[in-house]
């Protein structure tokens, strides 16, 4: 009866193996060149190709018992494993790039919708203008000068040649009417 470890190595040699190291060395010598060549043709990157080829050789060594001679040659089995592993690496790299690209887009995306913000702002301005048109002329002038031009009550009174108390009353009445027109609760 043959050693179970040697049975796993029928891929590379029909002879009984002297040691694990010898068996792996024989397997490596037989399949390394074709595996690396196939992997490099899929990946194009020498460093990644070497890494994937190493992973394939370890996988072949660990899963040699799964090899079924009735399904094809040992070399075809090894090269199929290599091709699958190389394609998996390509897909993994592409998925990583896509994920990083999406993350970069999220970093650039503003936290609010600029178009919606502009539309809402425009609608609010239109509503304020419509409500300003419901005020009396003195109320509208007082509110416009005080709130849009930033003048003090005294400066508004001097500019319109109206007593300061009248300006204060017109501003208060105008703001109350604006509040009611805009639907703002007190």
Task: Provide key terms for this protein.
186 residues, mainly alpha, 8 helices, 74% helix, rod-shaped
Could you outline the blueprint of secondary structure elements for this entry?
Layout: H1 4-7, H2 20-43, H3 46-62, H4 74-108, H5 114-132, H6 137-148, H7 153-160, H8 164-182
What does the model show?
This protein is rod-shaped. Helix content is 74%, strand content 0%. The chain has helices at 4-7, 20-43, 46-62, 74-108, 114-132, 137-148, 153-160, 164-182. It has 186 residues and is mainly alpha-helical. The longest helix has 35 residues, at 74-108.
Brief overview, please?
The chain has 186 residues and is mostly helical. The protein is 74% helix and 0% strand.
SSE pattern: HHHHHHHH
Distance between the termini: 96 Å
Q: Indicate the multimeric state.
A: single chain
Q: Regions with pLDDT < 50 over 5+ consecutive residues?
A: 1-15
Rg, rounded, reads 41 Å
Find the count of extended strands (DSSP E, 2+ residues): 0
Helical content (DSSP H or I, runs of 4+): over 70%
| Main beta sheet | none
Shape: rod-shaped
